[in-house]
Amino acid sequence: MFNFSNLFRSLPTVSSILPVRYRARKCTRERKAKINKKNRAANLAKARKYIPLLKKKQLDKSSRTIETFPWRTSNDDVYLGLFNQMRRYNLLEAILAHRELHHPTMINMPNAPLNVRLEIDLTTDKKNKFVDKYHKIIELPHPYDHGEDRTIIAFCQSAEMMEEARNAGAMLVGGKDVIKSIESLPNKLRRRWRRFFVSVAQTSRWQCGTKVTQFAMMRAVISPNPAQCKKFSRGLIMLPDFQYVLAHPDILTELPAIRGLLRKRYPSLQHGSLTLDLVAMIKHYIKGIKYNMQVDPYDESLGIVEMKIGQLTDEPEHLIENFETLFKDIMTKAPKRAEQTQFIIRCLAQTPASKEKFNINLSPFISTEEDSESDSDSDDEDEIKKKQRI
Questions:
Q1: Are 98 and 288 in contact (CB under 8 A)?
Q2: 294 - beta bridge partners?
Q3: Which end of the chain is more exposed for a tag (fewer CB within 10 A), N or C?
Q4: Mean pLDDT to the nearest integer, 86-106
Q5: Which of 87, 89, 62 is nearest to 76 (CA)?
Q6: pLDDT at position 373, please?
């Protein structure tokens, strides 16, 4: 009798037909990864070069084209803004012009906020390297209510400093106990939610309503609240509920336990979230004004900062001082270049109530910035000469 099992055994297997593929060497894998990375960067560059028609029209009006050609200036009082440079005003003239425009006899919004739009040149000496986008909180000499509810968690050791931090406005203040509760958070929540959903699956439809209300009550207990800060227990603190994390250097040895959970929000001297004066830093984060430097989606060498510096009813001197503080803070991010070029290209003063924009003359602010830098350099040179004499 013929045996079919021997026949099937004699047939070639799939592994014998297909070629054996061995793993590539480490150097080969790294070389291919670099090639793939370059190809991805080239594809992104091609995608960024594509500019829609409407965006091209906007770029034709930007400081990249019109503001760089002196022959586009107009000598007449009336001219087409599409083909000529915008007239430059002092900041005081722009404030007074906006006040006239928003007078009760015209727009009737005398309390309108005054915003400034700053266009920044992000290029550096390297061709493909640009200044990264960032966000920062600054203290204005004449602050206003920003209308944000900012939540802060602060870490420190001493009880006196904890009480001062709470009085300053921190939502939660603690030491080792708070760190341990944050460290054990994920596993505890995972078990609790797993038990809840299993119980929901095992209940009937008419009982699901009570289970959902129980879940809402459980979430209310888990989410931190200023009135419930004393009720926190191990594993009931959620980091996403806090916007900023501050710390004192005396607890620096305990913080590495939650470094993986904090990630970019880990306190450091570079970001200013690790400081000896914890109370002053909490007040800075609560009362300070936040601004973002965003990169243009079609032009990676152009940065934009939009920020409110006050209201039209404020004193013009106060508005000018607020703008000068913002200008100096942005200039701290200016890269060192071989050729001296302007970091802030153009500034427009505008309000949300109207489309009127005034081009601000930045030469007074740039000259004051250069004078301060020259004074600091001269002081350094004098100190070096004194040391050499000694």
A1: no
A2: 304
A3: N
A4: 91
A5: 87
A6: 55
Extract the tokens encoding 304: 């934009």
* Measured distance CA(357)–CA(8) in Å, rounded: 84
User: 147: left (phi > 0), else alpha (psi -120 to 50), else beta?
Assistant: left
Output the pTM of the full model: 0.66
Query: What structural domains does the chain harbor?
Result: 88-145+288-360 (3.30.190.20), 147-184+237-287 (3.40.50.790)
d(CA 339, CA 352): 37
Instruction: Take residue 91 and report the two structure tokens written for it.
Output: 């900041």
Is 188 exposed, middle or buried (CB count within 10 Å of its CB: 0-12, 13-18, 19+)?
A: middle
pLDDT in tens, 347-383: 999 999 888 899 999 998 887 655 555 555 555 555 5
Bridge pairing between strands 152-155 and 172-174: parallel
- H or E element, residue 57: helix 53-61
**Interatomic CA distance for residues 161 and 170, integer angstroms:** 12
What number of other Cβ atoms are within 10 A of residue 6's Cβ? 8
Q: How far is it, in rounded angstroms, from Cα 52 to Cα 329?
A: 34
Nearest to residue 328, comparing CAs of 292, 367, 289?
367
Q: Which of 300, 386, 326, 356 is nearest to 124 (CA)?
A: 300
pLDDT tens track for 237-282: 677 778 899 999 999 888 888 888 888 888 988 888 899 999 999 9
